[in-house]
Amino acid sequence: MPLLPLSSMMLISITTGDIALITVEKSDPLSPDSQYLIEKLSAELAAITGDNGKSHFAPASMDEERSLWALAKDQQGKATGCGAIRPLTDNIAELKRMFSDRSAPGIGDALLVFLETAAQRMGYGAIWLATRRVNQRAIHFYEKNGYARIANYGPYKDREETVCFSKAL
User: Fold this and answer.
1) 1, 71, 97, 161: least buried by Cβ within 10 Å?
2) What is the structure's pLDDT at 8?
3) Distances in Å between the alpha carbon of 104 and those of 12, 19, 51, 142?
4) Cα dihedral: 88, 118, 82, 87 (round 10)
5) Least confident of 3-12, 68-77, 98-107
6) Which is higher by pLDDT, 18 or 64?
7) What does pLDDT average to over the chain?
8) Alpha carbon distance 70, 81 (integer Å)
C-alpha cells in the first residue's frame, strides 16, 4: 500500500448527542494551543499520579522522522485535545501525551483513530504506550479501544506503578 502524505490527513468526527464536530490534524507541538494542552495534561497527571509526565516527552522529539504531533479542535476552532506518535522501533510507534479536555464526547476517540491511521500510513505495525496504574480513566480508554497489556518496556521496565499496552495496526 502506498504511503499517503501526512499533510493530507485530516479526520472529522461527528458524535451523537450534542452533534459536536471534531477536527484532528497534524500540528506543531510548540504552538500556543499545543503548549496550553500539554500544560493542562501535565497538571492533570500531577494531580492523579504525583508526576506530570514531562520527563518522558520532549517536543523536540517530534522533529524525528516518522513522528507526528496532532491537535483536536472543536467547531469553533478551540484546541480540545492532543497526542503524538514517535518511533520506538522500526515497526513500533509509541503513543505519547494523549489528552482530551473532555469538553465534547469523542475527542479522545478521534485523536486515537487519527494517530493509529497515521502510524499505519507511516509503516508501523503496532503502537505501544505506557500509563500509570492509578490512571484508571486512561486504562479503561485504551482497553475499550483494543489495546492489550504487555510487559513493561524501555524506561518503564522496572516501574511497578506503570502499565504498558500494545495494539497491532
Assistant:
1) 1
2) 47
3) 14, 9, 26, 18
4) 10
5) 3-12
6) 64
7) 86
8) 8
d(CA 20, CA 64): 33
Residue 24 carries which side chain, given as an amino acid letter? V
Give dist(CA 40, CA 100) in Å, integer: 9
Q: Round the CA-based radius of gyration of the chain to a whole number and report it.
A: 15
Helix intervals (H) in the chain: 32-49, 107-121, 136-144
Spatial separation of the C-alpha atoms in residues 127 and 130, rounded to whole Å: 11
Could you tell me how far CA 75 lies from the centroid of its own chain? 20
The rounded distance, in Å, linking the Cα atoms of 158 and 154 is: 9
Q: Shortest CA distance to 38 belongs to which of 97, 114, 89, 103? A: 97
Q: What is the pLDDT of residue 17?
A: 58
Q: What pLDDT is stored for residue 2 in this prediction? A: 37
Sheet containing strand 68-73, edge to edge, reads: 10-14, 21-26, 68-73, 79-87, 92-100, 126-132, 162-168, 148-150
Q: Cα 162 from chain centroid?
A: 17
Does the pLDDT at position 24 exceed 50?
A: yes
C-alpha 2/C-alpha 5 separation (Å) is 10
C-alpha cell of 22?
471534531
pLDDT, one tens digit per residue, over 91-100 is 999 999 999 9
